[in-house]
Amino acid sequence: MPARSSEAYVLRTYPYKEGDLIVSFFTRDQGKLRGAAKRARRMKSPFGAALERLSRVRIAYYQRENAELVRIDGAELMESQFALSASYEAGVVLDYIAEVSEQLLPPAEPNERFYRLLNAVLGDLRACADERLPAALWRAVTYFTFWSARLSGILPELKTGEADRQLARAMAVTPVEALGGLDWTRATGLELRRAVQREIESHIERRLATVALLEAL
Question: Which residues pair with 61 in a beta bridge?
């Protein structure tokens, strides 16, 4: 198969051999893929900061038929979440978004709507001034949790209070940036988030490591 170039979000990286990284990335046109990035952990890495968690990149890779890993040849940084990472709370939310995406997205299945979900939620977070960030974080977590389960076909029957069911109905038809008028606190949508997170964990048959960190905020 010839070399490809795709717009993608970096979901996760972990060490591989000496100086290399395994990268899980979600492309707009090919879905979630995993690849080896040679020399990515070395001091003079050819990738720079492009492989940070949830960076949006233009990634170049070579995919051999039936190979488990693609070969990553380069990554051009298009958009980063560096400014958000200055906040511990925002960092936990970004870790949560990356973990849920990594666990829910099946390999090599394009999902344009999920890609647009990441664009919308991350864009909304970046657009918030410092004083509005705490409310934006809970809006992002609740909206992303609801829509990631819905787009994956695992949204449960919502046996929650009427306020949470109304919130779910609002999120189903309203872009995330248009929900800023609601009073978003940690308690807003808490029952809804917990119900959907339990369903996600049941579906992937493992606990989400970042849920405990969110609960501690």
Answer: 4, 72
Residue 52: partners with Cβ closer than 8 Å, 6 or more residues away? 10, 80, 81, 82
Q: Residue 1: its pLDDT value, please?
A: 53
Q: What is the pTM of this model?
A: 0.94
Proportion of the chain above pLDDT 90, given as a percent:
81
DSSP string, 31-49: EEEEEEETTTTSTT-TTTT
Cβ-proximal residues to 9 (8 Å cutoff; 6+ apart), any chain: 25, 26, 54, 55, 56, 57, 101, 115, 118
CB 37 within 8 A of CB 2: no
- pLDDT lower than 70: segments of the chain: 1-2, 43
Domains and CATH numbers, the chain: 3-79 (2.40.50.140), 84-215 (no CATH)
